[in-house]
Design a protein that fits this description.
Elements: H1 2-8, H2 21-25, H3 31-34, E1 39-41, H4 46-57, E2 65-70, E3 76-82, H5 89-92, E4 112-113, E5 120-121, H6 126-145, E6 153-158, H7 161-166, E7 183-187
Parallel strand pairs: 1-2
Antiparallel strand pairs: 2-3, 3-6, 4-5, 6-7
């Protein structure tokens, strides 16, 4: 992520830390997050994302937060831009904290597990990740951040829909007629 950002935006400063993010989030001193212009959270882990949202809503983190994650085979990818305090979780998650706006409905069927250590992962190609990150960050930077548009946004990007159809993946009806690599942008408080 760092190398990709620096490669496309040579005038930014980007720091990465090898620590577990909870090592930082559980401290009372959150200066690390408040000295940044933006905080990218690219863990794909709901407890981490919810902690960032809670810290932002409470005012302990006062800089914008951008949550980014992908769906299996990168049939979908999402970025949530949080710039204003709001109860955004009610727009994004159902009562069981399942993401309401996913593209692949049966995504759990495509999670892979490693033998031995029992870890799980979502398969996807490096090319699709680069394409997704570049598309999302470019759009976000040019159309929202540089223009100082306020609000909270959901950017959703669909991957190779032709492959999803060919492999009989269950696609959310909202995305059935989409083209491959299409992006949709919504203000979060306007989501249904």
């Amino acid at each position: 992520m760092k190398n990709g950002l620096i490669r496309h935006y040579v005038d930014i400063n980007c720091e990465v830390y090898p620590n577990n993010v909870f090592d930082f989030l559980l401290k009372d001193d959150l200066d690390l997050f408040n000295k940044c212009d933006y905080n990218f959270v690219v863990t794909g882990t709901l407890p981490v994302e919810r902690k960032f949202i809670d810290l932002f809503k409470s005012g302990k983190i006062n800089k914008p937060i951008i949550l980014i994650w992908v769906e299996p085979y990168l049939m979908g990818g999402h970025a949530v831009i949080i710039q204003e305090k709001d109860d955004i979780e009610k727009y994004l998650y159902d009562t069981n904290f399942n993401f309401k706006h996913r593209i692949v409905l049966n995504g759990d069927d495509y999670i892979s597990r490693e033998a031995g250590c029992e870890s799980t992962y979502l398969p996807y190609s490096a090319f699709e990740v680069q394409y997704f990150i570049t598309s999302i960050v470019d759009f976000m930077n040019i159309n929202i951040l540089e223009k100082s548009k306020r609000g909270n946004y959901l950017l959703s990007w669909c991957g190779r829909m032709d492959k999803a159809r060919k492999n009989k993946m269950k696609i959310n009806s909202k995305w059935m007629s989409s083209n491959s690599r299409e992006m949709r942008v919504h203000k979060i408080n306007e989501l249904d």
